[in-house]
Amino acid sequence: MREYRRQKRASAIKRIRAKFGYGCQHEVLLFCSSKNVYAQVVDLKSGKTLFSVSTLALRDGVKNCKNIKKAEELGKILADKCKEKKITKISFNRAEKIFHGVVKSVADSFYGNLN
Questions:
Q1: What is the C-alpha separation between 80 and 110, in angstroms, rounded?
Q2: Which of these, 8, 15, 19, 91, is most buried using a 10 Å CB contact count?
Q3: What CATH number should be reported for the domain holding residue 93?
Q4: The model's pTM
């Protein structure tokens, strides 16, 4: 059972990479836990994380910050930090998650505010 999941995940990653490729030097990695959303910008040549943002900073006393409004705010913050570092070309790695809901709102607000 475990091996099947690994094969399925590896094929999903191949499929996404074939479609979007490795064309940029920088990449946004997205991780969604059950309560929060985390994003980090990585330099692919050096393999180092430049900066990271999460919905933990946007909590305002709420335990669960995994909703579309908080995800849009996260995308805006991420785009602002990329502008500060003068990063214009960047790819979005959604970690084989379906492009729907929270993932879609982060990506849309990120690319909408980056340009």
A1: 9
A2: 91
A3: 3.30.420.100
A4: 0.78
